[in-house]
Amino acid sequence: MSLTIDTAVLRDACALLSSPARWTCGAWARDSIGERCSPLAPQARQWCAWGALQKSAFALIGDKDASRKVADRISKQLVPCSGGLAFVNERGSYDLVRTVMRLGGPPVDAECTWPFPDCRTPAGFAAVLRREWLCEDAKLNVAARFEPELAQTRSTVMLTQA
Fold first, then answer.
1. Does 149 have pLDDT greater than 70?
2. Do the Cβ atoms of 101 and 13 come closer than 8 Å?
3. CB-side neighbour CA atoms (13 Å) of 55
4. Residue-wise pLDDT tens digits, 31-45
5. What's the sign of the alpha-carbon dihedral 67, 71, 74, 77?
6. In 31-118, which ranges are continuous DSSP H helix?
7. Is 84 within 8 Å of 75 (Cβ atoms)?
8. φ, ψ dihedrals at 38, nearest 5°
9. Which of 16, 42, 87, 149 has the greatest CB tally within 10 Å of its CB?
10. Cβ 159 vs Cβ 10: under 8 Å
């Protein structure tokens, strides 16, 4: 069975972020002393979700511009809401990033603000004030509970069959 580029990149990015020590926020990537660097830099030791996608795409494609486009496309499939995967990476947590990447896309019945509550409603705004949108504190954001209702995108179908 052949994998699509998107599926292979997502799989490899998940493997790259296999532990919290390999994940970062506030930068696309960081070196061994915590300084910001390019996700494609040989000295990179930690990556944000998008940085991991670009590094994984570059490893398969070998072209910076093409790998950036692939990372953007996958990022938009994973989190189609405003701010996308970068917002999840910066405002969520390692656990939330891993869950979103593992799911491969939003659940079928996801709200437009998934995986976060809708801040325009009183309940959603109160959840944000209580920090329930953070994965480690979450009661609202247990994205794994949506796994059976996962939207079957090309990427997720290929991952489940691989």
1. no
2. yes
3. 27
4. 999 999 999 999 999
5. negative
6. 49-61, 64-78, 84-91, 94-103
7. yes
8. -70, 145
9. 16
10. yes
